[in-house]
Amino acid sequence: MRGRDEDTGEFFSPSRSQNRREALEVLALGEKLVSLSEAQLAKLPVPESLLPHIRECKRITAHIAHKRQLAYLAKQMRREDDEVLEALRDALDENGEAARREVAAMHRVENWRERLLEGGDAALAELLDEYPQADRQRLRQLVRNTLDERKRNKPPHAFRELYRELRDAILGAREAGDALPEQD
After folding, report:
1. DSSP assignment of 50-62, as one string?
2. CA 156 from chain center: how many Å?
3. In the UniProt record, does the keyword Transmembrane helix occur (predicted)?
4. pLDDT value at position 26?
5. How far is it, in rounded angstroms, from Cα 96 to Cα 118?
6. Could you give the 3-state DSSP secondary structure of residue 181?
7. Cα–Cα distance for residue pair 61/66, rounded to 1 Å
8. How far apart are CA 78 and CA 71, in angstroms?
9. How is 94-117 classified by DSSP, letter by letter?
10. How does 14-52 read in b/e, with b if 16+ C-beta sit within 10 Å?
11. Which of 89, 111, 124, 158 could staple 145 via S-S, CB 3.0–4.6 A?
12. Is residue 180 pLDDT above 60, yes or no?
């Protein structure tokens, strides 16, 4: 029984309707997770304890059995912390903060790639000033190979490899920066 605080008149716990709404939100989140591929699931912060339940729900195709397994998955998800569920919702939300950060990082890497291809050694020096852990020789070689590929109309193998190298350098620096405490 919920009960009321005699002084303020407020309820001690959420109403049954509120509990049901929250449970249905978790069920909808579970449906989204089940509809994702394994590669998409790997990118999300899904707890290891939920992965077997998600895979089992994907495996079952009979309608009622699938629905029952989905309800069981939702029950297991409700046992998780609210922060875990919020992180999953944010990662799934196309307009979420995590998606915005990922897109911004991708654009930053693409901009650096174009600057390196157009600016040559001057752009490489700027990049190395900002990201000193980047491999100068490897980047110079990839820029040279990419320009050669473009000139010969070859497939963009080095172009893609340059992107991956830049992404590793830039995101690696950002993660290292996140681990360091802020200084005054």
Report:
1. THHHHHHHHH--S
2. 26
3. no
4. 93
5. 33
6. coil
7. 6
8. 11
9. TTSHHHHHHHHHHHHHHHHHHHHH
10. eeeeeeeeeeeebbebbeebbebeeeebeeeebeeebee
11. 158
12. no
**Of 40, 38, 26, 17, whose CA–CA distance to 80 is shortest?**
26
Which residue is it, tokens 């020789």? 137
Whole-angstrom distance, CA of residue 163 vs CA of residue 124? 14
Largest Cα–Cα separation, the chain: 82
The model's pTM: 0.52
Residue 160 vs residues 70, 110, 150, 156: alpha-carbon distances, Å: 40, 10, 12, 6
The residues, ordered by sequence, that sit 6+ positions from 10 with a Cβ below 8 Å of its Cβ are 4
Whether 76 has a pLDDT exceeding 90, the answer reads yes
* Structural tokens at position 126: 């700027």
Contacts for 92-100: CB closer than 8 Å, 24+ residues apart: 92/29, 92/32, 92/33, 92/44
Distance CA 143, CA 163 (A): 10
Total residues found in the chain within this entry: 184
Name residue, tokens 């049901």. Answer: 20
Contact predicate 146/117, CB 8 Å: yes
Burial (Cβ within 10 Å: 0-12, 13-18, ≥19) of residue 77: buried
**pLDDT for 126-165, tens place per residue?**
999 998 888 999 999 999 999 999 999 998 899 999 999 9
